[in-house]
Write a structure and sequence with these properties.
The protein is of the alpha/beta class. The protein is about 45% helix and about 20% strand. Keywords: Cytoplasm, Methyltransferase, rRNA processing, S-adenosyl-L-methionine, Transferase.
Amino acid sequence: MNITIVTVGKLKEKYLKQGIDEYLKRLSSYAKVDIIELPDEKAPETLSDVEMLQIKEKEGERILGKISADAHVIALAIEGKMKSSDELADTLDKLATYGKSKVVFVIGGSLGLGTSVMQRADEALSFSKMTFPHQLMRLILVEQIYRAFRINRGEPYHK
């Protein structure tokens, strides 16, 4: 399976990079995982609703440019469907079984994802009703992908 994580914004925190690198190393025996980091749109501290939409759409254009037509796209969005780790594992297992070997997870910038990206997404996934920094979501996501492969292989992993 080929998994791509398309994310907006540069990861600066060393501790997050180290955690992500650790899970990417662990995942390497299960799947090919790439992270594509896109620049976020520069914006002033206070924005009108129209300016927010414009920024999300500009970031969305860059995101969509990195997604192939045959990819199954899972957008991370607070309004998405919440799944347990077992349900995410089941989703990935079914995608692999039915020939969807390219899976793209999308993490938007600090303003979230634009309409065009949400329309392209095959599903929207929420990790919580809480808001997390998008940089931290990368670490949480790669850990959950790793956990999903362990679950699907029947291998032990801490609960």
